[in-house]
Backbone:
């Protein structure tokens, strides 16, 4: 009988040890590394037909998408490559005017306009028009870029196609 009691005690002790191991804990850490992501995305090219008046010709506001997850925020600027230039004869130019406004934004940070308007003045060697915005933290936005073809006096410049290109640039703060 002593042998059975010893065997039973040993069996119960083994069961207790097994329960003891089942009660211990461990942990595992999960880490997601998120790199700084910044982008500025232009919409499709815009075209208008001049209405043959002396009025400036305004393109429909163009929605540019801006993404910036830098905790300190981002700066985004939009600049022309010059005034509008006649593609057949670059001696004919018209000034370009830019305007910038906030269409929508999301995120804990927010965008503000730092320079709302800019205009070329090719006659006085001002060949670049610039507008800009900044965010104060992580934020995504749609910024509306308005562009005007400065007419002056209609008929004082050659017929044809006039072009300028606007480039958007984003940098972390």
Residues:
């Amino acid at each position: 009988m002593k042998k059975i009691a010893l065997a039973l005690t040993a069996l119960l002790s083994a069961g207790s040890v097994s329960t003891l191991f089942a009660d211990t804990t461990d942990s595992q850490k999960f880490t997601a590394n998120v790199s700084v992501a910044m982008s500025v995305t232009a919409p499709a090219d815009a075209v208008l037909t001049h209405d043959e008046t002396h009025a400036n010709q305004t393109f429909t506001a163009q929605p540019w998408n801006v993404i910036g997850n830098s905790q300190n925020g981002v700066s985004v600027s939009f600049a022309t490559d010059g005034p509008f230039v006649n593609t057949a004869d670059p001696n004919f130019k018209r000034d370009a005017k830019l305007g910038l406004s906030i269409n929508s934004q999301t995120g804990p940070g927010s965008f503000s306009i730092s320079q709302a308007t800019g205009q070329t003045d090719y006659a006085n060697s001002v060949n670049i028009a610039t507008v800009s915005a900044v965010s104060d933290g992580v934020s995504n936005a749609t910024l509306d870029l308005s562009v005007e073809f400065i007419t002056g006096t209609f008929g004082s410049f050659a017929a044809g196609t006039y072009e300028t290109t606007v480039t958007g640039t984003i940098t972390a703060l």
